[in-house]
Amino acid sequence: MARNFGKIKISDYARLSINPLRKITQEQKIEPNPAKRSITLQLGDPTIFGNFPPPVALISALSNAVVHDKFPYNISFGKFEARKAVAEYSKHQGDVSPDDVILSSGCSHALEMTVLTLVQPGENVLIPRPSYNYKTWIDGMKIETKAYNLDPEKQWDIDLVHMESLIDDKTRAIIINNPGNPCGNCFSKEHILELIELAERHQLPIVADEIYEHFVFPGTEFHPISSLSKNVPVITCSGLSKRFLVPGIRMGWIIVHDRNGALEEVKQGLRNVSARILGPNSTVQYALPDILQNTPQRFFVNKMMKISYNADLAYGLLSQIPGLKPIKPRGSMYMMIQIELDKFPEFQSCLEFTQQLIREQSVLVFPGHPCFNYPGFMRIVLTVTDGMIKESCKRLKEFCEAHAKL
């Protein structure tokens, strides 16, 4: 006689692997105002609206690769020619050889590989607050995250005193996101040197999430952490997705910046971990040298001019809205906006504020909490059209004027 199955339990890994951004977009059951066309300022995907096409050189390189690649298994940590191209592309970080490079399936995968190589279950790693969703893949491995504060009053510089207070005998690494998501921060040379001094004092390696490297606005200079570190070992994670406007291509890399042999075992560990999936997409690896070498500088300049224009436009319009305080970004493609909740007494949280904004104005933004572990704020994306920026800010102004108690 057949028996009904009971509910099959899932692993802690699956239960704890939660992406708060995807959770909100997939599970939020809020109906926008049917009288107003929806405007989404949520996902950091520059491909959505067609105003940021990828470089022609990239399309050409991929087309050539599809014809000529034989689609083999490659060395798990990456085809030599592809690693050589990454090493040459990354000379701004310091001396880099192909032997220092491990390829990955996107920058998120590079970060996951790095943390799982450095940190054991029960140990901890420091992450920024607010931050990108590092906890999605760290929590599932039963590794603790300790969140150090970024200061909105100082253009999101790190509160180094707070960071240092979190370090204990189980801390194994510091993750730094620069330029950053969701804040648009870009640290000065002096600030990075202060960070490096702290890391050296506590003998902690730095994991540099630099997926937005070079993604800075006019008047701002990007300094790779590895280029400033003499003694502290740095592991830099980056990739194609953001700078080349191809988030779905899933090509990232890890660069091991060793200091005095400190990362010798770590490099081998990263290669071991890379064998779990036998390396990233073969065809994209084949195309990678052409992509990195042949994309003209004007492509990047034009892109940053457009995003910088959108940042200035949004900042100017939002600054005029009662109850909102935008923090002007220095780079990446996001802006954080403080919601002065004391001026909106009907809302208990930034989540309630953004949910009602959808209902009334059909403007979709991400709340600072739970998405970025930062209550009282919301994040917008700057890669939409300038027309969408203007219209969404107009609706935000209507919404705030209707609900603010000044």
What does this structure look like?
With 406 residues, this protein is an alpha/beta fold. It has 15 helices and 14 strands. It has helices at 12-16, 20-27, 56-68, 80-89, 107-118, 135-138, 160-166, 189-201, 225-228, 264-274, 282-294, 297-318, 350-361, 368-371, 386-403, and strands at residues 39-40, 101-104, 124-129, 144-151, 157-158, 171-177, 206-209, 234-239, 252-257, 324-327, 334-339, 363-364, 366-367, 377-381. The strands form 3 sheets. The protein has an 8-stranded mixed beta sheet, with helices on both faces. Strands 10-11-14-13 form a 4-stranded antiparallel beta sheet. Helix 8 (189-201) links the parallel strand 6 and strand 7. The protein is globular and about 60 Å long. The protein starts with 11 loop residues before the first helix and ends with a helix.
In short:
It is built from 15 helices and 14 strands. The protein is α/β, with parallel strands linked by helices.
